[in-house]
Amino acid sequence: MDIASALWLNPSMHRVVLRVCCLLALANVARAQFQLTTGANTTDFNSLATTGLPTGWKVFTGATTSALGTDVSGTSFPSSATTWGTTTGNFRNVASALNSVVNSGDSTATQSAYTNRAIAIRQTASFGDPGAAFAFNISTAGVDVSSISFSAQMLSVQTNSTAWSLQYGFGANPSSWTTLAAYNDPGAFGASTITVTSSSFGSALNNQPNVWLRVVALTATTVGGTRDTFGIDDFTTTATVTTSPPNIVTQPPPQNVTPGATVSLSVVAAGTGTLSYRSE
């Protein structure tokens, strides 16, 4: 008997199937977002070929100043190793410029053999120029974000030049974004570390249920011709335990006492630091 027949014969099974579907949907949402923990949370992209994009990561085209864009994680990201010089427009799994003996002239076989991997893109006139984005969906519930850093990598230097920005936004599909840092094409093969600290973004990212961080190209390349292959690696978000001022969660209940009698008051408080309480 197929599922449709079973549901027709036993309507109560609708509730069971619906519940299972809801649980699966919730599980997928949970897997799609990365929960920050205290310390350095680093994505190194070394398992792209075996497990695909890490938890929380997606790639987009059509990103704008007010939208994430179109999620192309399942259609334009071949997880198998790809060379820096391949001109097909797509996101890709490439050798990181952080490999110890890496060289811009490395052969296809050498690039494929490197175990230190990066996620990259080759833009074309019809793919990601502008609007390409590497995006990381996180929850910072219970932690304070102290710094964000990543390795920005120029892997195939071409005549076109792309400006990339590190931004953050809030919610399932942010309509506004705040820029934290910029990376401009240096015109040479290699890696540059981009770092921003809470001195730049304050407490904005602290204890938030839904945050997007993205490295995005919002403006078109500056000259005609072939685009660069650009990649990122070792994306690190460092967090500490959330600290918040002490506050009274539950006030003491009212009591009737006779003058001169002893009264005991209790309160429930949350937060860190020294709490003092006075009743008048």
Overview of the molecule:
It is a single chain. The chain has 280 residues and is an alpha+beta fold. The chain contains 5 helices and 15 strands. Strands 1, 3, 4, 7, 9, 10 and 12 form a 7-stranded mixed beta sheet that branches. Strands 2, 5, 6, 8, 11 and 13 form a 6-stranded antiparallel beta sheet that branches. A hairpin with an 8-residue loop joins strand 3 and strand 4. The relative contact order is 0.18. The N terminus is likely disordered.
Summary tags:
5 helices; seven-stranded mixed beta sheet; disordered N terminus; elongated; alpha+beta; six-stranded antiparallel beta sheet; 15 strands; 280 residues
Summarize the structure.
The protein has 280 residues and is an alpha+beta fold. 15% of the residues lie in helices and 34% in strands.
